[in-house]
Amino acid sequence: MFSSEQTQDDCESVYIRENGVLRRVNEPKRAEEVSQYRNAKPCRLFGRGFSVELCIENQAQASTHTKRKEHFVFTYNEGGSLRYSVKSLFDISLLFIAENVHYVDSLIGFPEQMAERLFRAAEAKQKFSDPVYGPRALQVFSEAYGDLVLKSLCLRNRHILVSEKLEGIKVFHSLQCLDLFGCKLGDNHEILQHLTSDALSSLIHLSLGDNHLSNRGLQKLTAPARVMKRGLGKLQLLDLSWNAISEQTVGYLSCFPNLQELDISETNMELTASLRQTLQNKLGFVYSEAPLQGFSHSHCKTQGWAEQIVNQWEIHILESSKPKRDAQPRTEALRFYGRHRFIQETLKAPPQAFDKGYTKRIQFYKPTPNSQMQPTGSTSELTKTPSQSKRKRAPDSAVEGSGDSAPPEKRASSSSLSVEDWALLNSY
Asked: What is the average pLDDT across 202-210?
């Protein structure tokens, strides 16, 4: 027989938990072991960094693990315990359709409130940024909801965006306002054919200023409307300023029956009696003494569900086109030659108060049958727009005689720079 002492010595340690305290059954005899046991911290079954993940699929379904996690909402209660709840069937269905929206044939008849939630869910999943399925996903919404997706699109001075995202831009149907000022389109750009398509039959305001258009380009733009009576039937405002077009093209504009206002400033046309008579006979237009509010470009903004998508396009293009060269050698060279501070002060100087308005402002409008009064407009709002400040620079003599009360020596430092100075600055 074995005594109890032999059993305690030969057997391994046995532990039990009583009232949340771990206790050893066969206590050690030696005093040092007893004190060591009493001072020891209770053992933990799991470490502090231990976590449990809810697994709802097998190895064959591992690729859908991320999608399945979206079906649950994980929260913590007041005691710090993790709790999860299943999303509603509607939310699960909405996420599934948003993930596969490019496979949807049509959303016509689908409620607008639900469609907007579906659009936001697809936008959160970045489905519209996909180069393959993005245009198709936008087309599904545009065909069903038209101007709710995008009513007005401002692409002013964004020629890179127009070239890079042309397929996505052509998806937006039912646009009422389109601003393409300063996009350098030329006479053969693909978007000119799109302007006269059925997709933009609801266009009311079109700005094509500063796009290097010639008589040939305007002739091609108006050909579908003149020959086939198709495209731009609802157009009311047309901006053709800062283009090399002549008086010969005025007759082409008679194909737009609802045209109300026309801007042909800074073109090859001169405000002569012949031009006034031609526009009066062919279009029923009269010359506007005051600038027209419709051409101030302040009201044309990107509006609609897809506003953030257009902004994301531009941000992505700017980030991808940003130069990645190291500017440190250039900075050190500028400091070495002592011109770093001078250049920084010149570039940071406030813009000069040059009159950047039209030197040949030529705007016409069609008076209403009941009133011969011309529309009123704000001259300062038209002549001091930010976009025009990047255009031509007025001659120095005209600026000095423009009634500026400030003396020449108190102007910005950049006014004293000559052509050679600017060439030197650009050489750095």
From this structure: 95
